Amino acid sequence: MFWFKSLRDDIEVLDEPLNASFLKATGADRPHRDEIFASMRSSSMEVIHSWSCPRSLSTALMYSFAQRDDIEVLDEPLNASFLKATGADRPHRDEIFASMEIDGHKVVKDIIYGPGKKKYRFCKNLAKHRILGLPSELMSKGKHFILIRNPVQILPSFDKVIPLSFLDVGLADLVSIYSDLCQMGTPPLVIDADDLQRNRGFISATLRGLCDDLDIPFQASMLK
């Protein structure tokens, strides 16, 4: 079967995806049976995408999800692809290229939607990182929500890091992502970053509401 995949660059192949289900249902004894079960479980994780502009408390929210025992997190996995495609100048640009995958297709297929060991994977994304030409499954798969913050708070904060530009803030990209998800029939939940800075009770209610919308159980560890 894999020769078919090797001859095309627009197709992905699943090798006996029902194998583990067959072994479980029939009790058939096979070499490496336990490894087959483990590998099938690891490839079925749910991917959760957070989309925001810079300086929107997205890192704090990512750390909140990272406290869970059933999730792994990816911090801006498309950053290197964005820098390569746009030529944007950044401190430590070479180090980013050396430590991250640059090919956006590989990032989406092998890292964002690749196998993992936890039930969930949380991807903290900046809206501007959704560059043209990425695989459509970036948006068609997984669960997505949007984190917004008042530009009055974003702009002065971001200007302290790098000079402001329309490209770097990414407000238009965030609107585009919201519009595209709505057109796909999956309108995303929108979270106001201000709600993550209020009292503990309000933060708890916000995170519980987010988990409910994502159809995942809330864990109190998210409040740490």
From TrEMBL:
GO terms, biological process: carboxylic acid metabolic process
Domain of life: Eukaryota
Gene3D superfamilies: P-loop containing nucleotide triphosphate hydrolases
Family: Belongs to the class-IV pyridoxal-phosphate-dependent aminotransferase family.
UniProt-recorded name of the protein: Sulfotransferase
